[in-house]
Amino acid sequence: MREQARSWQIGTMSHLARLPSVLAVVTACSSDPVDPTADWVPNTGPPAHVVGHAFVFGPNDGNLPIEGAVVSVAEDPAAHTAVAADGSFELDVASGGAVSFSLTQTGFHPNQSAAIDITSAGIAMLGFQTPTEDTFQTLGQVARVTPDDTRCQISTTVSRKGTEPYGGTGLGVEGVEVAIDPPAAGIDGPIYFAYESGTIFPSRDQVLTSLDGGVIFANVPVGEYTLIATKAGTSFSSPVIRCRAGVLVNAAPPNGIQEQ
């Protein structure tokens, strides 16, 4: 079984270990005349094979199992599979467009991937970094965010080129500015993770990414967004996020922001 994607070192609340994802949540724009989810429909192309791994992110004091978690296509829940004892999973999904994948399991906060384009080649590595519900709530306290189930929370990692497929500790690109497009009223972020002698925690004093590479956007209204990373002389991928109410959307490695 692979080692979890993020290491944790928990001391005081301000020195909470690595939390690649963080909370946030927002209220949908009721005044919006257009349904922001209208184009989020199932694909209709030939089946493509998807292989991935789910990790328990952070503390798991109750020793809750990730085995048996349901991984499904958010746009087409009929396409689903169960996570094996070693955290691995695989399934066939329709190709022909972008879809998000969700992971649900008792005791864990609903987790979702970035929107990933499904071609005939499928996906060789789909990663989930999934916090327990207790960890999710603790993250909200550390980041000074109050979760609102009518909005979503977004997190990602800015990963260096050539790093481990599912990420790890201290594998981020330092000094990167991350933005969310389009901007929306009420979004709290970016909130970057500090990296101090291997201890990682969200810090509102951190103005750019640290060696951890983690960043969160809290209180994000339902809709579709692009995460954009900027650093002079460096190019990055720009993951697309489909923000659904009440979920933690973690664009985790290798489908987060990757140095090119």
Question: How does this model look, in words?
Answer:
There is one protein chain. By secondary structure, this protein is mainly beta. The protein is built from 1 helix and 18 strands. It has one helix at 133-142; strands spanning 47-56, 70-73, 76-82, 88-94, 97-99, 101-104, 111-112, 116-118, 123-130, 152-159, 177-181, 188-196, 199-203, 214-220, 223-230, 240-243, 248-251, 257-258. The strands form 4 sheets. Strands 2, 3, 6, 7, 10, 12, 13, 14, 17 and 18 form a 10-stranded mixed beta sheet that branches. A 3-stranded mixed beta sheet has the order 4-1-9, with no helix packed on it. A 3-stranded antiparallel beta sheet has the order 11-15-16, with no helix packed on it. The radius of gyration is 17 Å and the shape is globular. Residues 1-30 have low confidence and may be disordered.
